[in-house]
Structures are given as structure tokens and as C-alpha cells.
């Protein structure tokens, strides 16, 4: 494809929709066209590109190697188009476009988080903005910001990646928990005895927090490793493992008696959450407006004030 035309952009959007929905049939409702039309459009795009993008048939829908690479490039292209629309909308004194926001999982129950109040304030202003939210691990979110698939992400990032800007937003409190049926669920609260039992228990750890979890628990190896908070909670609720969870997330199970919080020494911590953006990116109006909304929401919460990240014009 030597030059990009309007029809090509439309075909790229069709391709992205097909991939996101997992096939031609599933994409019909989102695109509001028939499966045969989608098939024709995909064939046209493959002809324009000179690449085989996917396999479709009795075996189901599957991207080829070229299809995977094209999908990544297509997401970057469409985000660049949205950024162009955002920038030009400023000339008309309105904020419009698409905001690509990334979050780590299971933050919605945290009353200390300014994310929901910021979204409410932002949307109440009547901006003509489509908001897409991607939930992923810290490493996934950082990768998506670096390659342009996300405008910003909010979460706990144990390591800082070159090329990204990290700005402190708020802290999340966590503690150590066991499930009903675990020997520690009915153990006495004696500190030294409890720590001894903890050190011999099977531990489940989130991969991106594993090093600090094992250090706090004075053990060398996790019996299980997970990628997200929900998987961590499932294994703790099984009664076979102990592990750390955000206090706000675990509270429902503590209240119902299905979990116990283990209050041994040095096992209660607050972990910083940051707003992450690409260091070199010019900040479009919609992104700046949302970050301003985060700052305003943060000022109404009871802990330290949020300082917005520096703005980069080139």
C-alpha cells in the first residue's frame, strides 16, 4: 500500500473490529454489516496490502504472523488519527476524539482512588469523547503506552521504564490474607507465632510484586504465581494459600467470614499508584483535560495532593 486513502482507513477499522471481536460473525453487530460484506472488505484489504492477514473457515478465525504485525500497526495508526482529530478540535474550541486509558485490574472498589470521580467530572463537562479502557498488568500497560496504543495508564509500577513519565497519584493499602479452611484462619494473633506459621505456608504472589512479597514473608519461593488480583483472590479463597490483596478489594470476603486478614508485623503497606504517559509525546487536549480532572478529583481525597506531570510539546 503505497498511499493511504479514505477507503483504506475504513478497511483498517473493519480489520481491527474483526480481530477485537474474534472473527467475522462476531463483528457483524459492531460493524452493522453482513458477514459476506465483512469478508469482501477483508479480502480487499489483503489485496491492497499484498499480505495474508488471517485464516478463516471450519477451523475458526486465526491471525497469521503478518496479521498480528498488521493489527499492532493498525492500532497505532488509528490512535494517531484520533490524536489528529483531538488536536484539530482545539481550533474549534471543543474537546473531541478518543481517549485510550489503561488501568490495572480491580481498582473500582477503592474509595481512595480518584479515577472514578475524575471520569465523572470529565464526562459531566459534555466533551465529545469516546473513552476506551484497557485492563492489563503493569508491564502490558507500559508496553502499550510506549508503542502508542494507550494515551495514559494508572496503576502500581514497581519498575520505571525509560521513555515514560511517572507521576504520583495516590496510594493503595494492602494486607496479607488467608481463606476459610486455611490453618491460619483460626490461628491466634500472637505476632511471633503467627509469623512462624506464615513462613511455612504456601504463598501465592502476583508476578510483578513477587520479589517484595517473598521478602516480607521471609520465604524464598512462591507456591503459585498469578498475573492479576482476581486470580490471587481465587487461590486465597481456596484455603490452600496465603497472599497479599488490596484492603478495599478483600473487605467483602472478610465481612462474610471467607477471608481473614493476618495482622503480623511489617505486613501492612501502602503502594504508590502513578499516572504514566509517554515522555516524548505532545499532550493532546483530551489527554490534558482528563489529567486536569484527575488533579481536581485528587485534591478532594484525604491524602497528599496530586501534582500533574510536566507537559511535553515535542
Automatic annotation (TrEMBL):
The keyword Ubl conjugation does not apply. SUPFAM superfamilies: Periplasmic binding protein-like II (SSF53850), Winged helix' DNA-binding domain (SSF46785). Keywords: DNA-binding, Transcription, Transcription regulation. Residues 7-64 form the HTH lysR-type domain. The keyword DNA-binding applies. Belongs to the LysR transcriptional regulatory family. This is LysR family transcriptional regulator. It comes from Aromatoleum toluolicum.
Amino acid at each position: 500500500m503505497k498511499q493511504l486513502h479514505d477507503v483504506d482507513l475504513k478497511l483498517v477499522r473493519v480489520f481491527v473490529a474483526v480481530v477485537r471481536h474474534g472473527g467475522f460473525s462476531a463483528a457483524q453487530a459492531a460493524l452493522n454489516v453482513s458477514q459476506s460484506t465483512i469478508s469482501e472488505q477483508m479480502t480487499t484489504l489483503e489485496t491492497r496490502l499484498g499480505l495474508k492477514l488471517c485464516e478463516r473457515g471450519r477451523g475458526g478465525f486465526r491471525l497469521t504472523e503478518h496479521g498480528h504485525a498488521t493489527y499492532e500497526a493498525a492500532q497505532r495508526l488509528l490512535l494517531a488519527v484520533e490524536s489528529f482529530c483531538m488536536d484539530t478540535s482545539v481550533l474549534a474550541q471543543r474537546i473531541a476524539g478518543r481517549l485510550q486509558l489503561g488501568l490495572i485490574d480491580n481498582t473500582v472498589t477503592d474509595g481512595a482512588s480518584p479515577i472514578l470521580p475524575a471520569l465523572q467530572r470529565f464526562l459531566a463537562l459534555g466533551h465529545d469523547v469516546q473513552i476506551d479502557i484497557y485492563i492489563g498488568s503493569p508491564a502490558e500497560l507500559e508496553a502499550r503506552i510506549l508503542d502508542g496504543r494507550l494515551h495514559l495508564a494508572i496503576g502500581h509500577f514497581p519498575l520505571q521504564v525509560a521513555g515514560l513519565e511517572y507521576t504520583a497519584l495516590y496510594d493503595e493499602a494492602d494486607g496479607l490474607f488467608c481463606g476459610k479452611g486455611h490453618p491460619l484462619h483460626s490461628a491466634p494473633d500472637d505476632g511471633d507465632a503467627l509469623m512462624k506459621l506464615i513462613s511455612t505456608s504456601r504463598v501465592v504472589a502476583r508476578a510483578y510484586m513477587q520479589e517484595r512479597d517473598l521478602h516480607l514473608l521471609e520465604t524464598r519461593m512462591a507456591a503459585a504465581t498469578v498475573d492479576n488480583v482476581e486470580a490471587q483472590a481465587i487461590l486465597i479463597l481456596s484455603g490452600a494459600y496465603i497472599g497479599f490483596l488490596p484492603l478495599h478489594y478483600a473487605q467483602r470476603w472478610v465481612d462474610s467470614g471467607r477471608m481473614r486478614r493476618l495482622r503480623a508485623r511489617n505486613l501492612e503497606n501502602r503502594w504508590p499508584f502513578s499516572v504514566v504517559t509517554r515522555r516524548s509525546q505532545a499532550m493532546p487536549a483530551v489527554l490534558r483535560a482528563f489529567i486536569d480532572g484527575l488533579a481536581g478529583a485528587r485534591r478532594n481525597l484525604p491524602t497528599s495532593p496530586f501534582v500533574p506531570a510536566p507537559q511535553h510539546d515535542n
